[in-house]
Specification:
The chain is of the alpha/beta class and 188 residues long. Helices cover 47% and strands 15% of the residues.
Length: 188
């Protein structure tokens, strides 16, 4: 048997399997330009605030279909990384994929996308958009950008709600209010 065929039939070691996932990511990832960092700044910086949509975790916005998945990683280092892979590719990179699913906070357009990701195991900790745009697929650039715009708006809503809750918690409390018709000392 040829040496190259023997090597091809030899089972992979654990380190070779984990490297396969890393190399898959490096081979497929597209670093998005600064325009994306500005357009989706709340998603990008969510990992810096415990009151963010992700409770301070790095965010991945993803869409999945029967063929595979598209993920945009908003990294803690300030990069926006766009990644696509088929389910077969991810099966070969399962160790890396399981780590990515567990490490990040996921935002998905709807329940169907969540179910597809969850069926591949493990299920992500995720926010499913209740008012996400219709027709989001990993291959439709326009629909995927609408989804990211909706996710950015949800991130803004989460910060506004957290800020309002914080302001209420720190607002001065009025302990007594003068009754109407009674004079308060100092008033004529």
């Amino acid at each position: 048997m040829a040496a190259w065929l023997c090597a091809a039939l030899t089972p992979l070691t654990t380190s070779e399997v984990s490297m396969r996932g890393k190399s898959l990511f490096v081979e497929r990832v597209i670093a998005r330009p600064v325009l994306w960092q500005n357009r989706f700044s709340l998603l990008l910086h969510a990992n810096q605030s415990a009151s963010s949509i992700s409770d301070g975790r790095q965010i991945v916005a993803a869409a999945a279909d029967a063929d595979g998945v598209r993920c945009v990683f908003f990294t803690t280092l300030g990069s926006v990384l766009d990644f696509r892979a088929s389910w077969a590719d991810l099966e070969h990179a399962r160790g890396w994929w399981e780590f990515a699913v567990r490490w990040n906070f996921w935002i998905l357009p709807d329940r169907e996308h969540f179910d597809r990701l969850a069926s591949f195991r493990p299920a992500p900790q995720a926010k499913i958009l209740s008012d996400g745009p219709a027709g989001v697929t990993p291959t439709s650039e326009a629909a995927f950008l609408r989804f990211l715009d909706t996710a950015e708006a949800c991130a803004a809503d989460a910060l506004i709600a957290a800020s309002a809750a914080s302001n209420v918690a720190h607002a001065p409390r009025i302990t007594s209010v003068p009754q109407v018709g009674h004079r308060v000392q100092g008033n004529a």
